[in-house]
Design brief:
heterodimer, A: 5 helices, globular, B: alpha+beta, Aldehyde Oxidoreductase, domain 4, 16 helices, 33 strands, 26% helix
């Protein structure tokens, strides 16, 4: 066990855990921030996506000891009132079915738009290909990303 | 105006819960009693000072805010929005004044609290409307008494009661207290479809804000003070069972509280098929956190041994049945050989019209084709899990289940508790697809909590979830069509089966459309457990049949849509047999609609199009799927969907469901498979188990609904099966070769560059 001071959603949070614990489980079990989801544990489904700095990162294979003082943003911290353009677009398009994968989808999509504010369909597909939606909401996800990028055009 | 009785059979459907005993109402806080680190963002409706329960479905606050309870499990089919919409419409309340809560299991207040068979809306259609209409009537009655005017002169619209002649008016909240004390009338008036103001209008997912902000909603999100986490280890192969284990090192690991084995069901317990599990003894690792128990599980030394032949006496919907699990370690290669061998032998004749043998003997041409599909894992994105808190004389369970009522009996029996001491509450569920109809994990969670003497959340790892069984069965079908010298189809023969069940629907189309028709089936026993998977049996047979009909249409020299319409016309005008369980005109209706909406007759340059249509869950779906070639790669570009499911409650959400079913059907048929080597599931996680991803999904999906005012029928499942046929038929057009064996990605013919 070791003590880590993590910079999560603009706050410094302290945990005492095994250094090999993935960030996913630190968030969920130690910090009670359950918006970041467990899907596969091997970085194949994207349900656990958070931002490390500005980069979409799978938290299920990221050990807490490797986070250091990098800024971590989770779905709970993406915006104060759920009004990030991507979240608003998700509601506008009414994307979710079961909803379980959507936090991860939103985190990947918001990282994409930060880097590339006006992505093409192909760029969206490439960026989002690591996030599985078992319900098959892919066409709505794409529409929501385009809505967030250009709210007036869609 | 429709008058219906508020009493159906022996059950008073709509009881006034203030007069009777109240339902168990649990609030959102039960999900996550620990305070989250982040402030909760909730839609802000002013809360009333007092609630008045009108019946098991709704309560009205003194300020006019209404809470509607959604009785059925929410697995992504959006019933948590659409079911309350039905209540709200008949109540005639402004939707913005409605708060929706998930109802707990309550067999006294609700019926069919099941997410299965695409039946949530259809089976509750009348009950939900009655709940709203009854409350509305009582409010009017209360106003009439208060104002001393006839109830017939009072209108109740959008939460306001008005008596025009006297100029009196009041909000529902003002009359709620008095209304809740009135007796429910024997008959109640329901709205006509033309009077609906909420049904038929698109309303956003009631959990949308919580989903996109990461609020606790799902079973895996449950947190309680003092809660421990458990995970289980089951045998690595079907055909094996637990022999012994050594947990001495695992127990030394940080956070680990205990390691023990449990027996899920007692030997003399008669299981229903929904209780079943291949692995009745599992090793439990109990600890403080999920990561700790998953790590410690790897350190438990477990010895497995071969399981003997096993026979289970089971029930399914009250009918007795026997299920055999033969000993041995099975392989996908031998499964295929066994199915081919069965298909070459005479099957069990299920339906026979005319003289098919003679028709085939005299045919100018016979077309014969065989189709197959592999086992599939449901792979809900949220793995199996459940919270249980078992104390002396009581059990509380909370989590994702599609069948709380059917599991309650097993839990009560296993814990030796009366049914009323077992309380089950559903969370939102990260997918279902049939997997959570089978709730052995709820029994496991209860047994673990009992042994641990603590609240416990049982969590399956993805690997544990994917390799546990309850798969979609593997199926095989051989079709034959006899053509006369003019290339008219004169006889049709299907012989089909699977491991361990047959996918045959002998009385569905094209039965009824042909003078000579033969349907046979067969089964092969297995120790690999299977279960209902979105549109059970239809999820294979629809695609196979619709691919075959495409080939017959081509051999007949007919347009594939016209070919089907001609058969349906025959079935409508001169049906053969009396047991045909589809309506030919509605079937034809969706084909005609998809023909028009897809621009089928105009053709499409550079597009390769396939059509398919199917009936299941009392609904009709036709799809036209366009493939375009990108180099040598066929890609699904667009799908046009026509659906007849009667009245559509929430059109945009229904469209979402149809889009999802379409994507799911393309994905499962094209990419997914669960295979076995010596009883071991070879795909254990999403590195080897392929699911459809963003870049493989259609670019666009256009969904159209038939507007015929009929009572609602199923929607969660029907768009899923037929698209597999449309895909196969479009791939043929694109590549010149037909695909017969799912997943098509491995059956794809070599492409000449």
């Amino acid at each position: 066990m070791a003590n880590f001071n993590l910079n999560i959603n603009g706050e410094t949070l302290s945990v005492d855990v095994d250094p090999n614990t993935p960030l996913l489980w630190v968030l969920r079990d130690h910090l009670n921030m359950v918006g970041t989801k467990y899907g596969c544990g091997i970085a194949q489904c994207g349900a656990c996506t958070v931002h490390l700095g500005d980069v979409a990162t799978r938290s299920c294979m990221l050990t807490v000891s490797s986070v250091g003082n990098q800024e971590v943003t989770t779905i709970e911290g993406l915006s104060v009132n759920g009004d990030h353009p991507v979240q608003k677009a998700w509601l506008e398009v009414d994307v979710p079915q079961c909803g379980y994968c959507q936090a991860g989808q939103i985190m990947t999509a918001s990282a994409l738009l930060k880097k590339n504010p006006n992505p093409t369909d192909e760029e969206i597909e490439m960026a989002m290909n690591g996030n599985i939606c078992r319900c098959g909401t892919y066409t709505r996800i794409k529409k929501a990303i385009k809505t967030a990028a250009n709210p007036e055009n869609v | 105006m429709t008058l219906i009785k508020t009493q159906i059979g022996r059950r008073a459907f709509i009881k006034n819960t203030s007069l009777a005993s109240g339902g168990l109402i649990l609030g959102f806080s039960m999900l996550n009693a620990c305070k989250p680190k982040q402030a909760e963002t909730m839609a802000a409706l002013e809360m009333p000072e007092e609630w008045f329960e009108m019946n098991g479905y709704l309560k009205i606050g003194d300020n006019g805010v209404v809470t509607i309870l959604s009785p059925n499990p929410e697995i992504g089919q959006n019933v948590k929005t659409s079911m309350p919409m039905i209540v709200a419409d008949e109540l005639d309340i402004d939707w913005s004044q409605v708060i929706v809560e998930q109802a707990p299991l309550n067999t006294k207040l609700y019926s069919w609290q099941v997410a299965g068979g695409s039946r949530s809306i259809s089976s509750s259609w009348q009950g939900l409307r009655m709940a709203g209409a009854t409350a509305r009537h009582l409010l009017k009655e209360a106003a009439a008494q208060a104002w001393q005017v006839p109830v017939s002169e009072i209108s109740a619209v959008a939460g306001m009661l008005t008596h025009e002649a006297s100029g009196n008016s009041a909000g529902y909240g003002e009359m709620a207290s008095a209304a809740s004390k009135l007796e429910v009338p024997e008959e109640i008036e329901l709205k006509e479809q033309s009077e609906f103001t909420i049904i038929g209008t698109s309303r956003k997912n009631v959990d949308g804000k919580k989903i996109v902000t990461g609020q606790p909603l799902f079973g895996l999100d449950v947190q309680r003070e003092g809660m421990l986490i458990a995970t289980v280890a089951h045998p690595p192969a079907f055909g094996m069972t637990l022999k012994s284990f050594d947990a001495s090192s695992a127990k030394q690991m940080p956070g680990i509280k205990d390691v023990f084995s449990i027996k899920v069901y007692e030997d003399d317990f008669k299981r229903s098929t929904f209780h079943h599990t291949a692995f009745n003894e599992v090793v439990v690792v109990l600890g403080e956190t999920t990561w700790q128990v998953m790590q410690a599980k790897k350190a438990v030394q477990i010895e497995w041994e071969k399981a003997p032949d096993r026979t289970y006496g089971m029930t399914m919907f009250g009918n007795d049945m026997t299920v055999n699990h033969p000993a041995g370690m099975e392989n996908s290669a031998s499964h295929k050989e066994k199915m081919e061998a069965m298909s070459a032998r005479p099957g069990r004749v299920v339906r026979r019209d005319g003289n098919p043998e003679a028709a085939f003997a005299n045919a100018a041409k016979v077309i014969e084709r065989s189709y197959s599909c592999p086992f599939l894992a449901h792979n809900t994105m949220e793995p199996m899990n459940f919270f249980a808190h078992v104390t002396e004389g009581h059990a509380e369970l909370l989590g994702p289940t599609q069948t709380p009522e059917w599991m309650e009996t097993a839990i009560a029996a296993r814990l030796d508790l009366p049914l009323d001491k077992v309380d089950i509450m559903m969370t939102r569920q990260g997918g279902g697809f049939g997997r959570r109809l089978y709730g052995h994990f709820m029994v496991e969670a209860a047994l673990i909590s009992k042994q641990a003497k603590a609240p416990v959340k049982l969590v399956y790892s993805r690997e544990e979830d994917m390799t546990q069984g309850i798969y979609r069965p593997a199926y095989y079908a051989t079709y034959r069509a006899a053509l006369d010298e003019n290339n008219n189809m004169v006889a049709f023969h299907v012989k089909t089966g699977g491991i361990p069940e047959s996918p045959l629907f002998a009385n569905r189309f094209p039965a009824g459309a042909l003078d000579n028709y033969l349907a046979e089936d067969w089964t092969i026993e297995s120790n690999i457990t299977t279960g209902a998977f979105r549109a059970p049996r239809s999820n294979f047979i629809a695609g196979a049949e619709q691919s075959f009909l495409d080939e017959v249409a081509e051999a007949s020299g007919k347009d594939p849509i016209q070919f089907r319409l001609d058969l349906l016309q025959r079935a409508q005008q001169h049906p053969v047999g009396e047991r045909n369980d589809y309506e030919a005109d509605r079937y034809a209706g969706v084909l005609e609609m998809v023909r028009e909406k897809s621009g089928w007759d105009q053709g499409a340059t550079g597009r390769h199009r396939g059509v398919s249509a199917y009936f299941c869950h009392n609904s009709y779906v036709a799809q036209v799927l366009d493939v375009i070639m990108e180099g040598n790669e066929p890609k699904v570009d667009r799908v046009c969907v026509a659906i007849d499911c009667g009245i559509v409650v929430n059109p945009d959400a229904a469209t979402n469901m149809a889009e999802g079913g379409t994507v799911d059907g393309i994905g499962q048929a094209m990419y997914s498979a669960m295979t076995f080597k010596d009883g071991v599931p070879e795909e254990k996680n999403f590195d080897r188990y392929r699911l459809i991803r963003h870049a493989e999904a259609p670019k666009s999906i256009d969904v159209h609904f038939v507007d015929n005012g009929k009572d609602p029928t199923g929607l969660g499942e029907p768009p899923f099966p037929p698209v597999m046929g449309a895909l196969a038929n479009a791939l043929y057009k694109a590549t010149g070769r037909r695909v017969y064996h799912q997943p098509f990605i491995t059956d794809r013919p070599p492409l000449v560059g």
